[in-house]
Records
---
Amino acid sequence: MENMADITACAWIVWAIAGIVSGVVAALAVGGRRAVWIDMAVGLVSSLAGAVGCVYVIGLQYPEQVVLSTMCGVLLAGIVLWILDTVTGCAPDSAVCNGCDIDVNDAPDPQE
């Protein structure tokens, strides 16, 4: 490879964009239970951490490794955002709601 600095700079940009996009997708998936910027920040940090961890294990010598590290970063971002939603989210039928806008009285009756 001629210029590794270009690949490394582009890799950081790709990892950051992938993390922000995964955060936005997670925010849309949970339906506004949290602020979008929280999901974007968590997605960004976890994507960068996953990608850097992958690079630490496999290296960053070829463009294919940038793709693999990006997939690792997105996977970790998805897992962390899923855990965040599980810990801080609330289900519509739960008796305890952690500050979301869902009214538990509007849940369908399971007897019907």
---
Amino acid sequence: MPEPFTIPDDLWDAIHSMLEEWPDEALTKAIASDRFSVVYQQAFEAANAAFEAEKLRLAELSHDELVELAFGMVRQHGTVAFHVDRGGYNCVYFDNE
């Protein structure tokens, strides 16, 4: 654990006293929230690393191979808007002509 900030002892005592007044539910929520933040950050970093690795792998493919992969994903996801990705951020749009 990192060293605590340089805070006077009487302020640490005041913080401790205030926390003693918190109900268990509030303490539990605060502690769980902090632990979740750490896990979420680790998961985000791992997911981002996987995303970057996948982009490098895909960069080796030809345009035709990329088209076929994207087309397969549109069919697999079966969405009305023709999403390439599950999040719906990359869609195939048709002109309204």
